[in-house]
Structure prediction request, 114 residues.
Amino acid sequence: VQLVESGGGLVLPGGSLTLSCAASKSLSRVTNMGWSRQSPGNQREFVVGFGSGGSMSAADSVKGRFTMSRDNAKNTIYLQMSSLKPEDTAVYSCYVWLNGDLYRGQGTEVTVSS
Prediction:
């Protein structure tokens, strides 16, 4: 499955942004999916995701500010980000586990700066 993210860009601190991740095939049966990010000089970190139980979990650094959703009809998952901070600046990529394999998109860059 191919994943293509979009929606990144430059946003002011305190602003909001929604990222999209379009999949090349149906995600209706996928339960484990989410978003991660990587900033320059740092390791990739988990941001938010749905686990096998269907519940959403989020990193402490984004709790209350970021959430994700899915639209099975469009084979798309979303990352809604609000109250953005400069430290949220990173390349954000989506991932899905499908049939035991991990798939990840190329990512979309988000810059939070005044």
User: Anything to note?
Assistant: The radius of gyration is 13 Å. The first strand starts at residue 3 and ends at 6.
